[in-house]
Amino acid sequence: MNILAINFGGIGDEIFFLPALISLKKEFPEAKITLALEPRSKSVKDLTDIIDDLFLIDVKGKNKYTELLKLVYLARKGHFDMVFSSGGNKFISILLTLTGIKKRYGYDTGKLSRILLTKAVPLNKNQYACAMYHDLVTPVTNSKTYLPEINVERQEKIPNSILIHPGVSKMSVQKGMIKTVTADVWAQTVDLLLEKGKHVILAGGPDDNEVIETIRQKSKFLPSPEFVNSQDNETCSLTNSSLSQNGRGCIDDCYGKTKSLKDLAVLIGKAEKFICSDSAPLHVAVAMGTKTYVIFGPTDDKKLIPQSENVIAIKAADNCPIKPCLWQHRQTTCENLDCLKITAQDIVRKVL
Asked: What is the tens place of the pLDDT at every residue in 169-179?
């Protein structure tokens, strides 16, 4: 069995898609699975051995239609038996038909999809995203995988530790989609946790340089960047603490020490608790089973986290009548951002 799956989006979307691929592999254990995705999300392959090959299709670039033609060419050349594609665009059924693959599965976007697809699956957006994507494979398997699973071993927990990953993707910020609290609030959160004797671990990706630098400058307790970055290990083994005095907690600055998504998963696995924004690290934490607290503002926590005591949404007590609004009522966040008026005290009370 040779299976093509198509799922465009960020790394979070690809992690959401993993349960569907895992169920396919359970049903067809000898199958080769190829995933077509955007280049920015290719690191998902580092987390799993379910995916055998990748087609990198830059549908957000200047040559969108050329890239889609490349996908059609690769699909025809690959001699696939089945294709599964996410997305609610009514032209997806035409794209899948052009691939020449006999068994085609996608969402029901109208009469055309019901004619062209082997099975047009009802699109239910009012559920956890993993379940929404998993609906695509229900016509061919009774297997059910509820949460993402990744190939990272369970880690020994660091006692009393709380990992903070404050950032969101730079692309979302550039597009006007603000989804987290300010760097000042994150700095205050770090200080409050230290005052309460916690072992704080600070992490972030390449897009988070500005917020990390602000946290370092605004925190009352963080030493100079030169000192906290003095560890020579690449993945932040946390063998030493950077600060421990006057009855306060200690802090390890691991920004820049996680060189891959898998490194981040290992670090998340070591923490007893994890605080983050609505971003890709959240979904890695779900897969790792670490107790996770997530800042939610304009997006819908019911669709983005599982209904579990292990994943807790931190939300403002605002009275916005259209919250959550992002992607449902608007494509960018509003100027007021009442939904993100969350204080460091609010965060710490929830976590502790």
From this structure: 777 777 788 88
User: What distance lies between CA 87 and its chain's CA centroid?
Assistant: 17
Which domain covers residue 27, as residue numbers? Answer: 2-137
Asked whether residue 144 is assigned to any structural domain, the reply reads: no
One domain for residues 124 and 165: no
Q: Could you tell me which residues come within 8 angstroms of residue 106 by beta carbon, excluding any fewer than 6 positions away?
A: 84, 85, 86, 87, 92, 93, 96, 113, 117, 120, 121, 136
Average pLDDT rounded to a whole number, residues 330-335: 85
pLDDT of residue 228 exceeding 90: no
- Residue 172 has a pLDDT of 79
Domain contains 306: yes
Asked whether the predicted pLDDT for residue 224 surpasses 70, the reply is: no
Domain count, the chain: 2
Choice between 234 and 33, residue whose per-residue pLDDT is larger:
33
Same domain, 341 and 256: yes
The secondary structure of residue 82, as a DSSP letter, is E
Report d(CA 31, CA 27) in Å as an integer.
9
For CA atoms 201, 205, 211, 214, give the dihedral sign: positive
Q: How far is CA 260 from CA 42, 44, 111, 154, 267, in A?
A: 11, 10, 43, 17, 11
User: With 70 as the cut, is the pLDDT of residue 288 above it?
Assistant: yes
Count CB atoms within 10 A of the CB of residue 212: 22
Residue found under tokens 């931190």: 314
Q: Please check the confidence at residue 229 and state whether its pLDDT lies above 60.
A: no
Are both 271 and 323 inside the same structural domain? Answer: yes
CA distance 242 to 169: 27
Domain check: are 30 and 76 in the same one? yes
Helix locations, the chain, DSSP H: 11-27, 64-78, 92-98, 111-116, 129-134, 170-174, 183-195, 209-218, 225-228, 261-270, 280-288, 301-304, 344-351
Backbone angles phi, psi at 149, to 5 degrees: -125, 135
